[in-house]
Specification:
Radius of gyration: 31 Å
CATH superfamily of the largest domain: Topoisomerase I, domain 2
CATH architecture of the largest domain: Orthogonal Bundle
Structural class: alpha+beta
Largest sheet: 6 strands, mixed
CATH topology of the largest domain: Topoisomerase I, domain 2
Strand order of the largest sheet: 2-3-4-1-7-8
Distance between the termini: 70 Å
Number of helices: 20
Length: about 675
C-alpha cells in the first residue's frame, strides 16, 4: 500500500480526487478521515502533530527560576494523538510513503515529524508543488524527490529558539510584575521588538508639539476672453510653502494685486511602470489596503490555495519561473465573463513579458491564479482576495500607465506661486488593477506668458502633524525590512499582539500595558526590544536550510544570547519589578469619577464578577458594570459626554467588542430595561 501524507484534510481530499480521477473513497479510521483509491491511501494532518516543550518539572513557576529554562531539556510532545495512532496503523501496511505537506520550513518539519512518529523502515519520498491543480499534482507525483532534512532542521530550530526565549522571558516579566494566570505578560524574540517599534512611534506622536503655520493660496482664473467649457480656474500656492510667521504672510498678501502672469509652464508625460508579482509581503499589504487584516487575508488565501484557485501564498519570490506557462494561465482566465475582457486584451499583445521584482527564489513562484473561478462559486471575501490576485497577475503583463504632469508658475507682483496638475492619459496596467488610483488634478489649458485674473487670495492657517501610526500592511513590510519573523509568521505575530491585549485598532495603537512593558524593557534590558538578535537568528536559520551551519550551533548561539540578556535582567530584577508594577497601575484607569473626581478603575468583586469602581471607596460608592469575561482594553478615545476612556472587550476566537463609554453603555442599558418592563 502507498501511504500519502498531506498537511491538511482538505488538501488530502482534493489530491486524492485528482490522483484517482474522481474515484477515491472517503473512509474513517478511529474518527480520522482517509481517502482510498487503487492501492493508495491519503491522510491529511492538522498541521504539526507534535510540539516542543519542557518536561513537567519545569512547569512550576514559583519553584523554577526563569533563567533555568535556557539550559532545560526540550522534549517532543504529541499534540495530535489520534492522528499519530492512525498514521502508525497505516504505516504498518505501507510499502511506500510519500510526504506531500506544504513546501516550506514548517511543511518539511511536519513531514519529518511524521517519519519520527511512525518509525517505519519502508522507502520514503517527497513531492513538492505550488498549486493543487491536476497538472501540478500529476507532475509532482511523477517526479518525487527526497526529504530536505536541512530545511526541516531550520523549522525545528525556530521552534526550540522561540520556546526558550518566549518561556524564559515571559516567565521573568510576569513574575516580576506579579501578573500571572490569564493576565500574564508575554515577551518574545520577534514580538517584543515589534511591540517596541509601535510603542516608540506612539511616544513620538504623544511628544509631538503641533506648530501653527500659514500658506498663501491664490485663486487664478483665465481671462474672460479665453474662458473654456472646462474649469477655467485653479489654485496656486506661494512657492515658500509654509510661513511660520503670520505677519510675513500678511505682508506679502498686502502687496498683491488682482493680476498675474504665467512665468513658467512645464508639461511632460510620466511613465508609471506596472507592479511586480505578488510575494507574501506585497500580497498582505495590498489586502490590507482593501480592508482585510493580514491574518484574515492569509487564512482566505490558504483556503483558495487548497481549493485549487491560487498558488501557494507563502513565498518570497517576485519573479515568475520560466517553467510557468503564463500565457496559458491568461488564456484560461479568458473563458469566464468576469475577466474575459482583461485577459483578451493581454492575449492580443505581440509580446507577453511580465515585470520582475528583486527577489527570485526556487521554492515557490509568486502568488498567481491557477484556475478560473466564477464569482458565484466563492464567498464574498474569497472573491475579493481571488480578484485581487487575478488583477495583480494581469497587471504584471500590462503596459505602463501614462500620466500628464503639469507644473505651472504664476508671478503675482513679484511673488511666485506654483500649481501642479496630474491627469491619467492611458490607464495601462491600472485598467487591470484599479486599486488606490491617484485622483486626477486637471488644470485648465494654459499658455506661458498668459495674463491671469486673481479672483482672491486666502491666508490658510494649518498646523504640523505628528508621525502616522503604522497600518497593518505597512507594519508587515516594516517587519520584513527589519528582519523580524518570516513570510509565514509575521501576520501571526501581529495577531498575537491583538490577542494579548497589547494593541488595538488599525492603524495599530499600543495599549497602556504595552507602553509599560516596553518602557521597562528599554530602560533595563534594551537588547530585548531591538531587532538585531532576532534578525541574526533568522539569517542563521536560513543558513541551516542551506546546509552551511548546524541546528545545534544556532540553538546554542540563541541560548548564549539569552544568557547574556538574563545577566542584566537578574541584576536589575528589583528595578524591573518596581517599574512594571508602577506602569501597569494605569492600565485599567478608565477616567475620573463623575461624583468625586477620583480615578475609576476596573476591579473584581469577591464573587469573581467585574465592575468599574471608584478609588475613593468607601467614601464614594460610584460603580459601573462590566462584562464578566474577556480582556479589557482601555483605549485612548475619550467620551465627549462623560470624559471616560472608551473600552473594548477581547475574547478568544471572537471579534473585538467595542463597548464604548461604560457610562453611556450603562445608561443605554437602563433605558432599554425600563422600556422592556413598560411593555
Amino acid at each position: 500500500m502507498h501511504l500519502i501524507v498531506t498537511e491538511k484534510n482538505n488538501a488530502a481530499k482534493r489530491i486524492a480526487q485528482i490522483l484517482s480521477k474522481g474515484s477515491a473513497e472517503q473512509k474513517k479510521i478511529d474518527g480520522v478521515n482517509i481517502y482510498e483509491y487503487d492501492d493508495s491511501t491519503i491522510i491529511g494532518l492538522s498541521g504539526h502533530i507534535v510540539t516542543v516543550d519542557f518536561p513537567d518539572k519545569y512547569n512550576n513557576w514559583s519553584e523554577v527560576e526563569p533563567h533555568e529554562l535556557i539550559e532545560a531539556e526540550i522534549i517532543s510532545i504529541p499534540v495530535q494523538k489520534k492522528i499519530i495512532s492512525v498514521l502508525k496503523k497505516l504505516a504498518k501496511k505501507a510499502d511506500k510513503i510519500t510526504i506531500a505537506t506544504d513546501y516550506d520550513r514548517e511543511g518539511e518539519l511536519i513531514g519529518v515529524e511524521v517519519l519520527r512518529s511512525i518509525q517505519s523502515t519502508v522507502p520514503v519520498n517527497r513531492v513538492r508543488y505550488s498549486a493543487i491543480t491536476p497538472s501540478e499534482i500529476t507532475k509532482a507525483f511523477s517526479n518525487p524527490t527526497e526529504i530536505d532534512f536541512n530545511l526541516a532542521s531550520a523549522g525545528e530550530a525556530r521552534q526550540k529558539i522561540d520556546l526558550v526565549w518566549g518561556a524564559a522571558l515571559t516567565r521573568f516579566i510576569s513574575l516580576s510584575s506579579r501578573r500571572l494566570g490569564k493576565n500574564f505578560l508575554s515577551v518574545g524574540r520577534v514580538q517584543s521588538p515589534l511591540l517596541a517599534l509601535l510603542a516608540n512611534r506612539e511616544k513620538e506622536i504623544r511628544a509631538f508639539k503641533t506648530t501653527p503655520y500659514w500658506e498663501i493660496h491664490a485663486l487664478c482664473t483665465i481671462s474672460k476672453k479665453r474662458r473654456c467649457q472646462n474649469s477655467d480656474e485653479f489654485t496656486a500656492k506661494h512657492e515658500k510653502g509654509r510661513f511660520l510667521e503670520k505677519g510675513e504672510a500678511e505682508s506679502i498678501i498686502s502687496r498683491l494685486g488682482g493680476e498675474g502672469i504665467i512665468s513658467g509652464l512645464r508639461q511632460e508625460e510620466k511613465i508609471e511602470k506596472p507592479p511586480i508579482p505578488f510575494n507574501t509581503t506585497e500580497f498582505l499589504r495590498a489586502s490590507s489596503a482593501i480592508g482585510l487584516s493580514p491574518a484574515n487575508a492569509m487564512r482566505i488565501a490558504e483556503g483558495l490555495y487548497i481549493d485549487g484557485w491560487i498558488s501557494y501564498p507563502r513565498t518570497d519570490n517576485t519573479v515568475y519561473p520560466k517553467s510557468l506557462d503564463t500565457k496559458e494561465v491568461i488564456r484560461s482566465l479568458s473563458k469566464h465573463d468576469e475577466f474575459k475582457e482583461y485577459a483578451d486584451a493581454l492575449l492580443k499583445k505581440d509580446v507577453l513579458k511580465p515585470t520582475r521584482g528583486k527577489k527570485e527564489t526556487t521554492d515557490h513562484p509568486p502568488i498567481y491564479p491557477v484556475a478560473a473561478a466564477k464569482k458565484s462559486a466563492l464567498g464574498a471575501y474569497e472573491w475579493k482576495i481571488y480578484e485581487l490576485v487575478v488583477r495583480r497577475f494581469f497587471a504584471t503583463f500590462a503596459d505602463p500607465a501614462i500620466w500628464k504632469k503639469t507644473e505651472v508658475s504664476v508671478d503675482i507682483d513679484g511673488e511666485t506661486f506654483k500649481a501642479g496638475g496630474l491627469q491619467l492619459l492611458d490607464e495601462g496596467w491600472r485598467w487591470h488593477y484599479p486599486y488606490n488610483v491617484p485622483k486626477d488634478t486637471i488644470l485648465p489649458p494654459l499658455r506661458n506668458g498668459e495674463q491671469l485674473d486673481i479672483a482672491k487670495v486666502d491666508l490658510v492657517e494649518k498646523e504640523t502633524k505628528p508621525p502616522k501610526r503604522y497600518g497593518q500592511g505597512a507594519l508587515i513590510k516594516k517587519m520584513e525590512d527589519l528582519g523580524l519573523g518570516t513570510k509565514s509568521t509575521r501576520h501571526e505575530v501581529l495577531s498575537k499582539l491583538y490577542a494579548r491585549g497589547y494593541v488595538y485598532g488599525n492603524p495599530v495603537i499600543p495599549t497602556k500595558t504595552a507602553m509599560a512593558v516596553v518602557d521597562t524593557l528599554e530602560k533595563y534590558a534594551e537588547r530585548i526590544t531591538q531587532p538585531d538578535m532576532s534578525r541574526t537568528l533568522e539569517e542563521d536559520m536560513d543558513e541551516i536550510a542551506e546546509g552551511r551551519i548546524s541546528e545545534e550551533a544556532v540553538v546554542q548561539e540563541s541560548k548564549d544570547m539569552l544568557n547574556s540578556v538574563f545577566e542584566v535582567l537578574n541584576e536589575r530584577r528589583e528595578h524591573i519589578s518596581d517599574a512594571l508594577r508602577k506602569g501597569l497601575r494605569e492600565e485599567n484607569i478608565i477616567g475620573a469619577c463623575p461624583e468625586c473626581g477620583s480615578d475609576l478603575t476596573a476591579r473584581r468583586s469577591k464573587r469573581g464578577g467585574r465592575f468599574i469602581g471608584c478609588t475613593g471607596y468607601p467614601d464614594c460608592t460610584f460603580t459601573l458594570p462590566l462584562p464578566k469575561s474577556g480582556r479589557l482594553i482601555v483605549t485612548q478615545n475619550g467620551c465627549e459626554i462623560h470624559g471616560l476612556n472608551k473600552v473594548k472587550i477581547i475574547s478568544k476566537g471572537r471579534r473585538a467588542w467595542d463597548l464604548g463609554c461604560p457610562y453611556c453603555n450603562y445608561i443605554e442599558w437602563q433605558k432599554s430595561k425600563k422600556e422592556g418592563e413598560g411593555s
